[in-house]
What we know:
Multidrug efflux pump. The chain is built from 17 helices and no strands. By secondary structure, it is mainly α. Residues 1-8 have low confidence and may be disordered.
Amino acid sequence: MSGTKTVAVKLTEGNILKKMLIFAVPIIIGNLLQELYYIFDTLIVGQTLGDIKLAAVGATSSLVFLATGFIIGITSGCAVLTSQFFGAGDDNRMKKSVASHIVIALISTVVLTVGFVLLAKPLLILLNTTSDTFAYSKTYLTIIYGGLPATMLYNVTSALLRSVGDSKTPLMLLLLSSVLNIGLDLLFILVFGWDVAGAAIATVISQGISALLCVVYIKFKVPFIIPNKESFKGIKSMLGDEFKIGFPMGFQYSVISIGMMVLQFFVNGFGSSAVAAYTIGNRVQLFLQNPLNSMSIVMATFAGQNAGAKRYDRIKSGTKKGLLLCLVYSLVIGVLAFIFAEFLTSIFLSNSDPITMKYSIEFIRWNCIFEWSLGMLFIYRGVIQGLKDGIVPMIGSVLEVMMRVLSPLIFSTTLGFASVSFAGPAAWSASAILMIIVYFHKFRKLKRIGTL
């Protein structure tokens, strides 16, 4: 195969903990940068435009993830076959895979962009968006949806780069995009006075520039993955294979976002202060939880490689070490966030609205108490996915949605905003129990048949 030599981390040999950490660090940094992308939007809007407009941007978070989550899932899924053909040294099928990926991305982009732009207002109405934030939310959401082509292009190109072993370039471009987003936020909001629209435009432009740089990088540094005219001929079967892998992953993200939407509906019912508090608390927690989420990706790759090598004993050992890392992190970060919840909230606010402060602190502290259950969920779910079981994680996602719905539905009238605060922990705990049961069942079965 011509082109750039790929450096990969082989997880089937060597010191387990050391290899896991080497593999995990770039993923953790990348995920943290991606979350910082949205944190700075929230922080800058909160500090410069006030609580109402902060609430307006926050009220769109689940709706933004409904679209972007599906894009992340489908592009990651479609890149799986590209990675397999690259590893096998099959240039022709690799290029056909990339061609299929491009076709699916183009069709999905048109459908998603047109569909979501038209649905922006109805979706906000469906979520019971408060009247004082509605117009701002609609403006922000419509611009983000209009920029979905940039989101798709970035995720397609970065997924393809990772599929051929290049995880550093997407990370560097994500860093550039984050810095650019902050600068444009300040320029468009403070200098140009574009209000919440400025924050949305900054996000779209910065992501679009990163996507174009990815395209340029691929053209000059990894041209061997670029399909030719022949690659687009007779790809019907390949399209089907790509879709079978990509769509379920996209759908899984969408299921999670539906749970977020339902929870947002209940939050909106508590008023603008609650929406602002939920926005702040959610941003803090998503940032703190990113290393745990990253470990889920690490465990899926670790389990996948070792399952292929029939090293199931190594998977068990790696699971224990990964679990220990996550539990230690969860306990330390949980205690610190619990203590500094008020300080973390104040970073995002330009004033000291007592209701927003109270709700945000309550949300952060409820989540902190149960960080360990989220760590267990991510470790065991990652291993199960690495063992090529996509059904159980899907069931777990549905279970999470049910718990996020039931918590405020049952307790909102008696416990108020607290029912929203512990909805997440209830969802993680229920799904984690399912993953633990399935994990031990799988390994008992392996032991019974003599594989372990």
